[in-house]
Amino acid sequence: MQDIQKKFWLEKFDCFSVSGKDARKFLNGITTSNILYSDNNLIKTCWLTPNGVLRSLIEINFLERNLEVIILAGNTNQIIDYFNQIIFPADDVLLSEPFLINRIQEIDESSSWRIYQPIFYKEEDKEFEIYTNKLNFLNSNDLKIWKVNQAIPSLDMEINGKNNPLELGLKDLVDFNKGCYLGQETMSKIKNVSSLKQEIRIWKSFESNFNLELEDTNLYINSAKDISVGKITSFCKSDSQITGLAMIKRKYLEEGSYFYSENFGKIIINKSVGSIFL
After folding, report:
1. 167 exposed, middle or buried (CB, 10 Å; 0-12, 13-18, 19+)?
2. β 54-62/198-205 pair status
3. Is residue 1 predicted with pLDDT exceeding 50?
4. Distance from C-alpha of 55 to C-alpha of 73, rounded to nearest angstrom
5. Inter-residue contact 15 to 68 (CB < 8 Å)
6. Distance of alpha carbon 16 from alpha carbon 2, whole angstroms
7. d(CA 26, CA 67)
8. Angle at the Cα of 196 from the Cα atoms of 190 and 82, rounded to 5 degrees
9. What is the pLDDT of residues 74-105, one digit of tens each?
10. Quick check: 259 and 267 in contact, CB under 8 A?
11. Which run of H or of E encompasses 60?
12. Domains and their CATH numbers in the chain
């Protein structure tokens, strides 16, 4: 009865396994978290470009004989192709074909998505249907809204070839003390000189009439559109209100919490529940 009162996030994600005695070392050199010396059975981490731009948000599930890489946001084929390209003949590393996995996690409105441990089921697992019949899952639209409030980035929206994980509030997924990894130099430089140019924020519109046909994704300091303060990256609709995510230039974050969008009118900017910008 207690589980019925709780809310859960159920979603299918692409997944592939990495096996072999060099599997941990291999993933440690590619991702931003410390894979070699973690005591956790599950790690959330990032895959970056050499210039430190976020390409994928992933989870690594430590199993007895292999590591499962769950693609929470990113291009699965691109990831697997890159991983295969950098496996040396001497490496004892083997990647499986991708498959779908069901990911279930408890959620709440006021805590970060990172504090709850998910569980995973494959489609053929007999326990999956029995287990899911007992739980209260968010519908697809409520899940989108919850993800916005958590500032969970999406492919081609916040993960757009421009934003780094620190700008997206994912600093806690970057280990600044581990050895070399893809994008490390840029991450260290940004951290050491505090040179973030923008930060992710949640926004909500106060208007009832929306013009979704406009292609203007800029946010302005006022309705005169004198100064652009950032860009809207995604949005979703809830009843009569629209909410979404935007990348805001840091120098304008102190100007106030209200900005203007040609598409959505006057909007309010808030910090997210799930990022470091709390």
Report:
1. buried
2. unpaired
3. no
4. 8
5. yes
6. 34
7. 11
8. 60
9. 999 999 999 999 999 999 999 999 999 999 99
10. yes
11. strand 54-62
12. 2-138 (3.30.1360.120)
The answer to whether 77 and 66 have CB atoms below 8 angstroms apart is no
- Compute the CA torsion angle 121, 122, 127, 131 (nearest 10 deg): 40
∠ Cα 33 152 249 (to 5°): 95
Reading the block at residue 113, the tokens are 């998505």
How far from 185 is each of 171, 180, 192, CA to CA, in Å?
Answer: 15, 8, 11
- Alpha-helical runs (H) found in the chain: 2-5, 23-28, 76-85, 126-132, 140-150, 184-193
Confirm if 131 and 255 have CB atoms less than 8 A apart: no
Per-residue buried b or exposed e for 20-29, using 16+ beta carbons within 10 Å of the residue's own CB: bebbbebbbb
**Position 159: which residue type?**
I
Q: Tell me the CA end-to-end span of the chain in Å, nearest whole number.
A: 32
pLDDT of res. 4: 52
pLDDT of 238 above 90: no
Cα–Cα distance for residue pair 114/45, rounded to 1 Å:
11
Q: What is the pLDDT of residues 254-270, one digit of tens each?
A: 877 899 999 999 999 99
Q: Which two structure tokens, joined as six digits, stand for 106? A: 């408890």
Q: Please report, as a single letter, which amino acid is at residue 82.
A: Y
Q: What is the pTM of this model?
A: 0.92
State phi, psi for 48 to the nearest 5 degrees.
-115, 165
Question: pLDDT for 169-193, tens place per residue?
Answer: 999 999 999 889 999 999 998 887 7
Q: Is 47 helix (H, G, I), strand (E, B) or coil?
A: strand
